[in-house]
Amino acid sequence: MAPTDRMQTAETQERGQRGGNIMEGQAPCCGKLYVCRLCHDAEENHQMDRFKVREVQCSACLTVQQTQQTCQQCHLLFGEYYCDICHLFDKDKKQYHCQPCGICRIGPREKYFHCEKCNLCLAQDLQGNHKCVENVSRQNCPVCMEDIHTSRIGAHVLPCGHLLHKAYRCPLCMHSACDMQNHWKEIDKEIAQSPMPTEYQGAMVKIMCNDCQAHCTVPFHVLGMKCTSCGSYNTAQDGGLIQLQQPEQNMEPQQHDQQ
Predict the structure, then answer these.
(1) How far is the first Cα of the chain from the last one, in angstroms, to the nearest whole number?
(2) How far apart are CA 195 and CA 208, in angstroms?
(3) What total number of domains does the chain contain?
(4) Is residue 249's pLDDT more than 80?
(5) Does residue 33 share a domain with residue 101?
(6) Residue 78 sits in which domain range?
(7) Which residues belong to any copy of the CTCHY-type domain (predicted)?
């Protein structure tokens, strides 16, 4: 059996795009407003618990209200899809909430099933046609040792039943273990189709490339930061966001007193 993509989390595709920057959720940890938890986690030194979000603010009328799909004041639709468990607002991508997984998945639901032993959603063509490994999705990726179950990076189901992230890196030096050019092109396309919310469009970040060891400053994006030296997305963020100041408009020249 060839490696097959497992189900992706809905947040793999969320990345702050909700039909426009039309609402912000209040982080229960720090009380700050963010378009999505990924933007919060990139800027703060702690992680936001999506399940504890209780209030959102409409960006049109600024009404603070309980989390819901439509603004109670101006009736603006916050998202074509809304999960009242994960508090996920997004465009309609046939998402559904999987109760055993505990998170939202990208569907459609009828094309996937939840394997009770593996404890994750798999494509229907794998039903009765894969090797089960108990709670396999709750194990970390054996290459990068990072979480697979809630990861925004897709994974492969190997013939042995174990999972690996799609992005292969050496566990010692983090260098890409194979030719990733096609994968980088896929990320290019996804980023081009997924503009960041307005308040992050001018944000920059310092990165270090794991492939060529270059240090550079690039635009921030929750999908990934591209090395300007070699084009790799196998990069690590070095520090917080750098917010570029907008140039002041209609600046009047300074008047000097005549002596």
Answers:
(1) 88
(2) 23
(3) 2
(4) no
(5) yes
(6) 4-165
(7) 78-140
